[in-house]
# Entry
Amino acid sequence: MKKILTIFLCLLCLSVVETAAQSISGIQKQDTANAEISEQNDLKVCGFPFSDNNRVTFLKTGHDKFEDLFQHIKQARTFIHMEYFNFRNDSINAILISLLHEKVKDGVEVRVMYDAFGNSSNNRPFSRAKHDSISALGIQLEKFDPIRFPWVNHIYPRDHRKIVVIDGMHAYTGGMNVADYYIEGLEGIGPWRDMHMRIEGPAVNDLHDIFVQMWAKQTGYLLSGAKYFPVHSEKEGNVRLAVVDRHPRTGNKAIRQLYVSMLDNAKKNVRIINPYFVPTRSVRKAIERAIKRGVDVQIMVSEKSDIPLTPDATHYVAWQLAKKGATVYMFQNGFHHTKIMTVDDEFCTVGSANLNSRSLRYDYEINMAIFDHATTMEMVNMFEDDKKSSVILDQEKWNQKTAWKKGVAWFGHLLTPFL
# Structure
């Protein structure tokens, strides 16, 4: 009798535990669903365009990006439109110009715009003669905000977006410009890690509208009509996207609102990769609020960088957040120039915006908010894999810095409003 009673009690306990586990799981799933709904509502209130039935393909290396882009350029039939911060005058750019020239000869309209400051700030810029020689090929080439005296007037804002639209059917955006180092890396730094994405579906038109408005701003010529904005099929994909465009004066807070909203809606976890991690006060406070709520906040920054001072400031800010409860990983296999954030493994953002004042307060930027579990998990898995090439920024790691380096890091973080 005692044996039967014992078995009965065990079964009863197991049933209670299973019911409780199911209840907790249900609550967690509901919390995550509520977080995603809240985030979408926040973005809709801000007026960012949403669309469903999109397909997203992540291009996680420079080789993948340029191979995919060049293949679709070869297939272009109507137009190719490009907007980049800079085109480095090197071999990958030579291949691109050659392909665009071939498409011009096929009757395809080719319009290309690059930022004048972005061009002059890279170590292999287009000269005036190079610009003119490209234009002579029939490629409509424009500099955004050419730098003229007084030069200081042209420091802000700059066009930091990366957008390509082909035939209104394929669009590319992300963190990569046009340069060899996305494939070959940089001497003294190593591999250059970055992210891009190809989009098919209605969101292509939302991205294209941003290019069209910028082209009109620079040239005075507005492109319109079904030729440039075709109707998209409902069968192109199943991903919901929101296009978050930071446009100075009319959309100053757009990217800040995106990051703050995503952080405030997080219930379980947040993963951030960003190359110049010196966020503005509102974003930093949102990270701290997430930590206080018990959200697992993980941040990945690079140990090396392509510019001085910013990495020291980045390490200082990251260390302050680590002391508050974030887990900070220092990526050591080159420079991680990727700009992503995932929330609760369910939604994420990928784009051109760095987490610094220049991107969040001044420049033209574009980020995609992606509401899809499978797509987000691609970013989560990439983050987890990159941990293998990283070390945790803890007290021991911080103490390895010299007193001089710590001083430089502290001084650098004071310049956050200008970096």
